Amino acid sequence: MTMDQLFDEQPAHWGLRGDPYVWEAIREQLAGQPLPADAAALEESLLTAFTSVVGVDLRTESADEVYREEFAHGGLSSGHVSLSAWRDWLIPLLVSRGRRA
User: Fold this and answer.
1) Origin, by domain of life (predicted)?
2) How many CA atoms lie within 13 A of 62 on its CB side?
3) Measured between alpha carbons, how far is 39 from 19 in angstroms, rounded to an integer?
4) Among 4, 14, 61, 74, which residue has the fewest nearby CB atoms (within 10 Å)?
5) Please, what are the averages of pLDDT over each run of 10 residues along the chain (101 residues)?
6) Residue 75: its pLDDT value, please?
7) Domain range for 7
């Protein structure tokens, strides 16, 4: 299994409108990379990819959301990325999928 396969099934809900675009950008960045051997390494890889894509380190940033122009595609909250959603359920969801693989 490769890292991008963790992203095959989108979550049932998102935090903000920019989140699906971040999901796809991380998926593209990790395409073809093998799944790390353990959950800690997988989480680290996902957090590093998130930082590269969004420009925010979830390990140190305390804000709940950020705005990124590149993820703005129309709508009131367009371009806003929910850091709390990524911290609380999106990264854990991906790690959980990797552990089951």
Assistant:
1) Bacteria
2) 0
3) 23
4) 74
5) 97 94 97 96 98 97 94 84 97 96 83
6) 73
7) 3-100
